[in-house]
Amino acid sequence: MKLVALPAFADNYIWMLHDGPEALVVDPGEATPVLGALQSRHLTLSRILVTHHHMDHVGGLADLRSVLRGEVQGPATESIPSPFLPMRAGDRTTWRSARISVLDVPGHTAGHVAYVVSAGDASANMLFCGDTLFSGGCGRLFEGTAEQMHHSLQSLAVLPGDTLVCCAHEYTLANLRFALAVEPDNAELIHYQARCAQRRAAGLATLPSTVEQERRINPFLRCDQPAVIAAAQQRGATGSDPVQVFAALRQWKNTFQ
């Protein structure tokens, strides 16, 4: 299995997984990058996974259906362009030699789901998390609550550390500027920011990250750490409860320049 990040719009990634003859894509906000990748690699599109209903994740579905030789799978409780197979937490399916598990991760949208894909060999699992988890950050709360998003992020943080985190946007450097404001003395974060800056300067993606990397540097996964709690309390958190800490961080990030 080969994993490819297809750039779309200004900063989206459409993730493609393929085994040579067939391809699966995640959150095709536009069709053109997918069609180009299929043609250049001589692939048949046989599965589409959708994490949530926002147009920059579903806008390419209509134009891809003519070449799709399989199913669209998407969150059961969101309005996804039909037809699609509704997916809920705990659902499991297969594609080629891969196994796919579904997690509910509400917060960014009310019915957002994530997919954990095991390629069936010795390689690490892949997490397709849409706009729930970003490297160094997390999605805005458009439809859910801080409590929901905190719970969703914690459900991702307990995945095996080598799980590849395949986020849907190249927001990493902006997120890390905020993360450094929260934890300026985090040595792992300082090193990671420098490495990501080098990759972007070379025109390379910062993604995928890993779950273990995010545990070490992402403030939204570190709401129980003393430095993160102290920073959140300076921004309005009234205690050390992780949900309060998360809510204060998320509000701070909304206006961070």
CATH architecture: 4-Layer Sandwich
Tell me the fraction of residues in β-strands, as a range: 25-35%
Major sheet description:
6 strands, mixed
CATH class call: Alpha Beta
Radius of gyration: 18 Å
Low-confidence residue ranges: none
The backbone outline, from C-alpha atoms, is globular
Distance between the termini: 39 Å
CATH topology value: Metallo-beta-lactamase, Chain A
Helix content: 25-40%
Q: Quickly give the structural class.
A: alpha/beta
What order do the helices and strands follow?
A: EEEHEHHEEEEEEEEHEHHEHHH
Number of strands: 14
The helix tally amounts to: 9
Properties at a glance:
257 residues, alpha/beta, Metallo-beta-lactamase, Chain A, 9 helices
Verbal overview:
By secondary structure, the protein is an alpha/beta fold. It has one domain (2-255): Metallo-beta-lactamase, Chain A, CATH 3.60.15. The protein has 9 helices and 14 strands. It has helices at residues 32-41, 55-58, 61-64, 146-157, 172-182, 187-201, 211-217, 226-233, 242-255, and strands at 2-8, 12-18, 22-26, 44-49, 71-75, 85-87, 92-95, 98-104, 113-118, 126-130, 133-134, 137-138, 164-167, 209-210. The strands form 3 sheets. A 6-stranded mixed β-sheet has the order 1-2-3-4-5-6, with helices on one face. A hairpin with a 3-residue loop joins strand 2 and strand 3. Helix 5 packs antiparallel against helix 6 (187-201) and helix 8 (226-233) crosses helix 9. The longest helix is centred in the last third of the chain and has 15 residues, at 187-201. The chain is globular and about 55 Å long. The model has no long low-confidence stretch (mean pLDDT 97).
